[in-house]
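I hope you will forgive my troubling you with a question about protein structure. I should value your view on which stretches of the chain appear to form regular backbone elements. Here, with my thanks, is the record as I have it:
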Amino acid sequence: MDSKTIEQNKLIAEFMDIPKCDRCEEYCGRYKFGTGIYFEPSEMEYHALWNWLMPVLAKINAYQNDTWQRDIIVNGTIATLITLDIEKCYSAVINFINWYNKQ
């Protein structure tokens, strides 16, 4: 896995509020998923598996506030599902999170 994908997977984990590892005295780079399993960003599969990416899309779809623009979701992130192309959806998710983090 390339360093760009690793950083993007970390970005998604933080967006999803996945807690950082609590087993180490210092942060070791791993994230604790609800199942009690720890993953490093290089082990995360947001970029490759739908069962990782779909909860992210669900959170994005549920997001709304005063500055939220439906076009960003419909014409960007959620609309990519129609293509059934996980790479396009993953890219759209990264674009949305970058936009979201600037708000």
User: Anything to note?
Assistant: The beta strands are 31-32, 38-39. The mean pLDDT is 81. The chain has four helices and two strands.
